[in-house]
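Supplementary notes for students who missed Thursday's class. We covered one full example, reproduced here. Read the sequence, then the structure, then the short commentary at the end.
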Amino acid sequence: MVIERLALSLPAMEALARELSLWARPGLALHLSGDLGAGKSAFARAFIRGLALDGRDFDIPSPSFSLVQSYDDLRVPVVHADLYRIGSPAEVTELGLEEFLARFLMIIEWPEKLPENISPDCLKIAISGAGEARDLKLEAAGTWIEILRRDEAIQEFVKQSPVADGTRYYFEGDASARRYERVAGKAETLLLMDMPKRPDGPAVKNGKSYSAIAHLAEGIDAVVGINDYLFSLDYSVPRIYAADIKLGMALIELLGDKVFSRMMARGEDMGVPMKTAVEVLADMAKRDWPKKVPVRGGPEHRIADYDLDAMMIEVDLLPSWFWPLQKKSAPGDEVKAEFSAIWQSILAGIRPGKPVWTLRDYHSPNLLWLPERKGLRRVGIIDTQDCVMGHPAYDLVSMLQDARVDIDFGRADELLDTYCGLRSAAGPFDAGEFSRAFAILGAQRATKILGIFARLSKRDGKPIYLNHIPRVSRYLKRNLAHPDLAVLKRWHERNLPL
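Structure (token representation):
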């Protein structure tokens, strides 16, 4: 794939470099060729600055004499190499550049000195011209082909939006495959959600993939349908300004930066925000929720039941991923069968009564405080696409047994009592049965998350999630103290102590 960008000013060329940095990931290579003074180093510096975590400016020396310069403190680590003084292929080999590929993105000036392409995922950029204008020829291979195609589609989508004049910036994502960008226009700033419909994964049970069984959203239609409906009920979900279901893109409201988890980390008083977030869930529990919602520009979106199959495929993540992490071996068939039978029996006893929309990720990274708004609208809610019809205790568990931050058990109990008081005041409500469901669903969620965090580390190369395992283990241990979970507690004591 070849793209030409002609007569670019130096600022325009640097803007292109920053735009391409939005797609950075380890293993990619950028080959910059051109005469002395063509602008290779200027392009490389702009690309590297685009990866700064806080948007700061910092010194980026030319590696002309050091040959190799590494940057470890960026959102994607980079190795910048200048091969101008290299005299032979053997000298390139001595640099050991290939060893960096697993963890770094590679930027190489004078790549013609390489004996061969350093990565199959390579973007070759030939820069020519001088003075006020540069001509660039971009030749993509491997992953870069799809990157350039997707980037071009995003450009066209943004041009038709309220931020057509906007500049695109990196925006922190989450544990999913979705990408986010902040698009800053002259009048407003919106959030670009890049969520192409993902192919179904391999079959894991009865010919179905994990995502199909667990009812995980596979496209942006779920985001649009769920958010539009919640927005119509005056909940503070991001307003969707533009969406293209086929492309899997949406421009949505940026709710601000007062994220609950960051507020907690800063030691801010969370009394009112947490209580209001509980009030939101109590309000949601009073409503009658539809099983399907319209989607602008697409077919209706169906909200699946959070059924036994979904909950069982989730708890299976513990023996599949967490057990091998802890014990360095796979569990035996008999142990797995016993674990499954125990959970089947426990979950079959859950009685949701009137199901509600269950967001499944109603916790501190996805809740924002909007003090300028009134009442329940002070709680901003994001990450709604995996919504299912489930038990109202589940989202309360997600919040009060937060996997990412410590929630004091005493404070959690107070908020649970607050919720039960709100529900009791609104009509018939069995607090004892709700507390039982809270413990069971808390154990189910903790079990699932232990497996997910182990999988993120082992399969996806994200060991940072292992830092949360002690906290989630504490939640699971506390839930197992409920009498109705005594059998599961004994299984853990025998096989996988917490």
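Commentary. Residues 156 and 164 are 9 Å apart (CA to CA). The chain has two domains: 2-145, 256-495. If anything here is unclear, bring it to office hours.
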